[in-house]
Amino acid sequence: MGSSFRLFRIFGIDIKLHLTFALLPLFLGVFYYKDYGLWVGLRAVVLVLLVFVCVLAHELSHSLVAKKYGIRVPEITLYPIGGVASMQRIPRASRQEFTISIVGPISNFVIALLLFFPLYVLLGKENLFSPSLESWPRTFANVFWINPLLGIFNLIPAFPMDGGRILRSLLASRMNYVNATRISVFVGHIFAILFVLLGIWTKHWMLVLIAVFIYLSASNEERMVFYEDNKNRPVPPGG
Ligand code: ZN
Fold it and tell me: Which one of 2, 129, 158, 184 has the lowest number of neighbouring Cβ atoms within 10 Å?
């Protein structure tokens, strides 16, 4: 992809930053600087970079488990709304898909657990439970809270979230893969529609945008699976 650039390489995986993610700290920094001054602007930039580390840890956990199953993971690209580990294939074995998918959210819960006591001691209870950009301790408090949020958000059973894949793998262990995908895509569409309505109701336009993205991604997953399924189907004699 031309609009992303390589940051570094770890475990044989290229870590790339999409241009939009690279612009995010700059954009937020300037936005907060203009309204709240230099320090808040600076804290916004630092926070984006720390979130970037958490998202990267999440994607790396998917990638390392995938590699354990012999799946090639050439690169991870970080976008403003999350990371994407480009895997050479998504395993159809339901157990593998389940493990690869669930390890991402689990990694965020583990990070939160590991951070809790050190941050509790270093920042103090008062700051840890009042995350904001008001002071440096409260800025670092955000890092604790962002992890369970990332974990829960990714567990929403809608493609392309991990929850969508977890749901499909659970269904695929008791029915065929295409039907499991069809049902998961249907559930994903329901969630997307609910998010659109919620977004319009609360005037959170970002949520509407994300919901549209979820809807399209779910449809795309269905199309891909059907396409592969037809491709692999033996050609009937004379046809
Ligand atoms: Zn994930």
Answer: 2
Q: How far is the CA of 64 from the centre of ligand 1 (A)?
A: 12
CA dist 227 and 173 (Å) reads 21
Strand duo 13-18 + 4-10: pairing: antiparallel
99 and 139 part of one domain? yes
CA atoms within 13 A on the CB side of 21: 26
Q: Is there a single domain that holds both residue 46 and residue 87?
A: yes
User: Containing domain of residue 141, as a range?
Assistant: 1-155
Distance 42 CA to ligand 1 centre (A): 28
Which residues fall inside 5 Å of ion ligand 1, going by CB? 104, 154, 162
Query: Which of the residues are catalytic?
Result: 59
Whether residues 7 and 30 share a domain: the answer is yes
Ligand 1 mean position, distance from CA 76 (Å)? 11
Neighbours of 182 (CB within 10 A): 16
